[in-house]
Specification:
By secondary structure, the chain is an all-alpha fold. Helix content is 33%, strand content 0%. The protein starts with 10 loop residues before the first helix and ends in a 39-residue tail after the last helix.
């Protein structure tokens, strides 16, 4: 299920989403994290962006109106992958 050329998430996408879940559940076991990952993103209110840092406002860029699944990269300046 890996390969952004085929329409699936790439390595950076999966790493950011995994870090997002690990931040919110630091004491969960591996099997619980796996379950929470799919449960969380199956019902995620897309196109609400996934942001690792709490309290960081994501800038609205007019060319990004069609972002279906925005995942913010943890870099500066903030970009979406």
């Amino acid at each position: 299920v890996y390969g952004n050329l085929l329409g699936f998430f790439g390595g950076v996408h999966l790493a950011v989403l995994s870090a997002f879940i690990c931040q919110r559940h630091p004491t969960a076991s591996l099997s619980a994290l796996f379950f929470i990952f799919f449960k969380t993103f199956a019902f995620w209110p897309w196109p609400t962006p996934v942001i690792l840092q709490d309290g960081v406002a994501w800038p609205f860029i007019p060319t990004d109106k069609v972002l279906w699944m925005p995942i913010q990269l943890p870099c500066s300046p903030y970009q979406f992958c």
